Amino acid sequence: MASEVWPQPVLDLLTTGDDRPVFEDGDRVVTAAGMASLVRRAAGGLRAAGVGPGTGVALEVGVSPEAFAVIIAAFALGARVSGVRPGLTPSQKRPFLDLDGAAGAALVDDARAADLAAGPDDGAPLVAAGRPADLARITWTSGSTGVPKGCVRTYAAMSAAWAPYPDRWPPAVADLAARLDRYLVFGSLNSLVMLEYAVLTLAAGGTLVAARPPGLPDMVTRHRATASVVTVGKLHQLVRDQRSRPADLSSLRALLVSGSPLEPGRLTEALDVLGPVVFHGYGQTETGMIAMVTPAELAADPRLRASVGRAPAVTDLSIRDAAGRPAAEGELYVRTPSQASGYWADPDGTAEVFDAGWVRTRDLARLDERGYLYLDGRIRDIIIVNAEVVYAGPVERILGGDPAVAEAYVVGRPDDATGEAVHAFLVPATGHTPDPDRLRTLVGAALGPAAVPHTVRLIDRVPVTPNGKPDKKALPR
């Protein structure tokens, strides 16, 4: 039924919301009726440009009412929507645009979104046109491998999501939703997490508030924000600022922390300084939310600060050993109603991660007797910098390709500013001394700023395991 196809629930929320404020951008307040009009206008412009079921739309948008409207409009027309991270060079954008060969995908940036949303409004009800089996969204996990990896979701998967349906909310999400009166949105609405919780905010009766510089904690105070999503690095910075220059954060009721691991000690510090507002979540681009723990749970049992919470009832977890057999500790496999179905144009990657309806997280995990999930490390060699996945292998290949470097090893370490940071250890080639600054420049040019090593250390040799393999865990901290 059309009423069940994404984003019909959002369209219904807007068309029945009348004068309720749904988006605030500085002095500008857009009501539900006003946003519904912007969505219809954007849809009319996209339709006139040939966008419809199955066609590609690449969105390079930030945070504005028009950005939100054009995203919902593209989905309403049944397009395959692909987000482009703002600030990329033309060559970096090309993989996002050349998905259909010579035809390419229609690119909509902020200026084009504003033009589309300023077009005529025919007032006709907009009905979601997505076909369940069609691809609805490509979410790009990272370009740090040299080639972006795109997780694809169908309209059927998008329609199975919990965010717009209060009767589907897991208990932890329902607790969070009650705090989303004024949800602070920053970066880009292309973000899987930002958009998902924006939809949750609308379903909960809240308002999206565009965050404008300067950053935290001033944005919370200035916008009277009640909630937002933050990376681990931003949380650390907020805690430091509150210790040194306390701001009035009395409006704040929820901070959802995601993107990289949060150490129990840091979580305790955040709760002590900020109060019972921290929700610790765990998810992946391939799966969406996997688990969440609430401030009340963290206060009731401090041992849970080492956990990432419990999975919703509709989410299946399976912990397996190296042979794929059930185990008390091992690799976590996940199955969610709205998970991706594979990677765009990457059959090998799809076969490696998507296994008979399950998604391999490549994270090591265990469950306690109450169903709380604990993460014990990673099978894959990645570092998460400001919520961006950096693969160690490509960084090591660039460093090791320099004539002055005989061997290169890259590891991730916790970092207060970025959650984790890249650290490089180099064995110099005989008669050479590597130039750290030049090597950092090479990595940044090839893989982007997140992959640039925070430190570069020269070592005589790499530690080895008993079987003679390099032991990166034993590299100096």
What does the overall shape look like? globular
CATH class type of the largest domain: Alpha Beta
The computed structural class is alpha/beta
Distance between the termini: 56 Å
- Helical segment tally? 15
* Largest sheet composition: 8 strands, mixed
Overall strand count: 25
Into which percent range does the helicity of residues fall? 25-40%
Provide the CATH architecture of the largest domain. 3-Layer(aba) Sandwich
Give the CATH superfamily of the largest domain.
ANL, N-terminal domain
Give the tally of structural domains.
Answer: 3
The whole-angstrom Rg is: 23 Å
> Widest sheet: strand order?
2-1-9-8-10-11-12-13
Q: Catalogue the unreliable spans.
A: none
CATH topology-level name of the largest domain: Rossmann fold
- Provide mean pLDDT, rounded: 90
Instruction: Give the DSSP E fraction (strand runs of 2 or more residues).
Output: 25-35%
Pfam families: AMP-binding (PF00501), AMP-binding_C (PF13193)
GO molecular function: acid-thiol ligase activity
Organism: Virgisporangium ochraceum
Domain AMP-dependent synthetase/ligase: 19-92, 125-344
